[in-house]
Amino acid sequence: MRASLRSLGWIAPVVQNTRTGHLIDGHARVEEALSAGVDVVPVIDVDLSPAQEALALATFDPITAMAALDREALDALLREVDTGEAALQALLADVAAQAGIAPDFAPVGIDEQGRLDEKAQVQCPACGHAFTP
Amino acid sequence: MRSRPELRLDWCSHAAAKYAVEHWHYARSLPSGATVKVGVWEDVQYIGCVIFAMGATPNLAKHHHLPQTAICELARVALRAHASPVSRIVRVALQYLRARCPGIRLVVSFADADQGHYGGIYQAGGWLYLGLSNPGGSQGFIVRGRPMHRRSVGSAGWSQSLAWLRAHVDPAAQALRTAGKFKYAMPLDADMRARMLPLAQPYPKRPCATSSAGAAPGVQPGEGGSTPTVALLEVIHAP
Prior knowledge:
The structure holds two protein chains of two kinds.
Chain A: H1 2-8, E1 14-17, E2 23-25, H2 27-35, E3 43-46, H3 50-59, H4 62-69, H5 71-80, H6 86-98, E4 122-123, E5 130-131
Parallel strand pairs in A: 1-3
Antiparallel strand pairs in A: 1-2, 4-5
Chain B: E1 7-11, H1 14-24, E2 35-42, E3 45-53, H2 59-63, E4 71-79, H3 86-100, E5 106-112, H4 120-124, E6 128-133, E7 138-143, E8 146-149, H5 150-155, H6 162-168, E9 174-177, E10 181-187, H7 190-196, H8 230-237
Parallel strand pairs in B: 4-5
Antiparallel strand pairs in B: 1-2, 2-3, 3-4, 5-10, 6-10, 7-8, 7-9
């Protein structure tokens, strides 16, 4: 990132949500600028609700890179995202899979399911007698 | 125009069900105790699951004069955006339930009016409507401006009493009243259906404006008919 900024400069501005003050895109560039003592960076201001902001954060490409750093934060973000768009949800599912957040969704055997039509036996810890309560 | 994706249901793992509920269902948590978890895929994409569980209370069975092992609850329909009708997904999931738990005779489910749900998917699936459960009842408290279920209040180490909460936690605490839950039932055999039919009431209407906050709510408002669809029942009861 440092080398990129040094050799190419600011190719694209960072994106800030004026309503919440949060950065939508450009976290690494701002951190780099701060550590380099740069006071002014190019910014695009957007006005998003918190829900829109969560969606924007989750769907911006750089989130995939961030996921490697903080899966927990990404998972929390994905839980907040509110969208009924199938394509966006598929994209988010890909992001979760790439970040290793999503489990294996493959079908399993019937034995992994509980039985709701029978009570499990319990065993007396003292005498070992098994019975159904 | 793209054709509808291929719908597939199969058993799913605890982890897959947990993920679906935590990300795509307003309850955000799995029901406790034994569960039957039926996963849903469109083409190869996992889109969520249907979860059956023991009822939250033994009164559920007592109320219908059944042993606890003959009744269960359709506890979660946790789906992300999808193309297949939810009523169809639930219908197939019921077949999986019957395969795993042949002793179950009655499935009940609740559509949460507080979430803007009214049970459209159950109406489309021909479930029997049994009335509005606990309207105006106490659901919990608003503490420090945040709605909290009774159990959450207890888990926080607080007394489930408004007077106690006002004295010790938040002088402005208020009781939280629920709009109730629309109760539906699906009998799984002819005898049970004959027993339940006299209890059936006319379906409630879809609210004018739903207050569902999520775009992919757990139990989604859907198209509903005004009478039970016998054809669907016959499919479910088919061997």
